[in-house]
Every structure is written in structure tokens, then in C-alpha cells.
Design brief:
Crystallins are the dominant structural components of the vertebrate eye lens. This protein is mostly beta strands. The protein is built from no helices and 14 strands. It has strands at 3-9, 13-19, 37-41, 45-50, 54-60, 63-64, 76-79, 88-92, 101-104, 122-127, 129-135, 139-146, 150-151, 160-163. A four-stranded antiparallel beta sheet has the order 2-1-3-6, with no helix packed on it. Strands 9-8-10-13 form a four-stranded antiparallel beta sheet, with no helix packed on it. Strands 5-4-7 form a three-stranded antiparallel beta sheet, with no helix packed on it. The chain is elongated.
């Protein structure tokens, strides 16, 4: 079983909380914007700077005696239950999984050559964790999708895709 332990001080010290599943709001546990270090057991975890898995994010594995850039900023967390190996994502050109579909196993800098430019409106993350960008070459606003996520009617179009590593 995977777990994430957040600590209120550097070097895995001080008050702590142990998590075993996704938490959309750490405020309910009294640990919102409190973590200074963390320990991951099992699968990797993604931490977010806002509630409900939005804002800046970063993937962690193992022990992290400090978390530069994320000290006292973590508001929500997700576990990548199926790991990061052999990623797979299916993207559809229309909402509700309609139209042409592409099955991907790696990053895509631009969808221009695939005929998908500006059309990717729904996706299913089969394995791994993916970063979806609004602009070519992994730029612009981004969001993360993790294996098991199904977004059938997203308002932002997929322009490029990166992998969480």
C-alpha cells in the first residue's frame, strides 16, 4: 500500500500526517500549506499548491528532507496508483470520447502533424501520469491527468502532452 507522510519541519521532523489516498483539501486534516518535508512509500505522489488538484504540481518519490519551491504550499495530493512505467493515454478529438482517437505512450510536442491541433477535447489516462498543455512545446496553462482519470468534456483543448517523471 502506498502512503505519503507530510512533516511540518525539514528533515522529516515535527508534526506529521500520513495519507493513504487522494486528498482534495488538506485543510480538513489541519495540514494545508504546512509541509516542509515528506516521505513517500510505494507509488509516486503528486502534490498541488491549490485545493482540488489544481495549481502548480510536482511528483515525489522516496524521502525528501526538503521540498524546495513547495515548502508550506501543499494544499492537495494524489497518488499515482499504477506507477509511471509504460504510460498510455487515449485522446479524442471531440467531447464524450467522440471522433478520431489517438493512443499515446510518450510526450507530444505538437499535434499539428496528427490532425489533432486544437481538437483534443476528451481523454482517458490508462497508465502513468500526464501533463496536458494549452500550447505547443509544453507551454501555457497545464493540468495533470493520472491513470484512471476520464475527462469527457474538458473546456481546454489539448495542444501538447508531457509525462510526469
Amino acid at each position: 500500500m502506498s502512503s505519503l507522510q507530510l512533516f511540518a519541519e525539514n528533515d522529516l521532523k515535527g508534526e506529521s500526517v500520513t495519507l493513504r489516498g487522494d486528498i482534495p483539501k488538506l485543510s480538513g486534516l489541519g495540514f494545508r500549506k504546512k509541509a516542509m518535508s515528506l516521505r513517500v512509500s510505494g507509488h509516486p505522489w503528486v502534490v498541488f499548491t491549490e485545493d482540488n488538484y489544481v495549481g502548480d504540481f510536482r511528483c515525489y518519490k522516496g524521502e525528501n528532507l526538503s521540498i524546495p519551491g513547495y515548502e508550506k504550499k501543499i494544499c492537495s495530493v494524489r497518488v499515482i496508483k499504477r506507477g509511471l512505467d509504460k504510460p498510455q493515454l487515449v485522446i479524442y478529438e471531440d467531447t464524450y470520447y467522440g471522433g478520431q482517437a489517438l493512443t499515446l505512450s510518450g510526450p507530444v510536442e505538437s499535434f499539428e502533424s496528427s490532425g489533432f491541433q486544437g481538437k483534443g477535447l476528451s481523454e482517458i489516462a490508462v497508465k502513468g501520469a500526464w501533463i496536458i498543455y494549452e500550447e505547443n512545446k509544453f507551454r501555457g496553462r497545464s493540468r495533470i491527468v493520472i491513470a484512471g482519470d476520464q475527462n469527457y468534456d474538458y473546456y481546454e483543448r489539448v495542444i501538447s502532452l508531457g509525462l510526469v517523471i
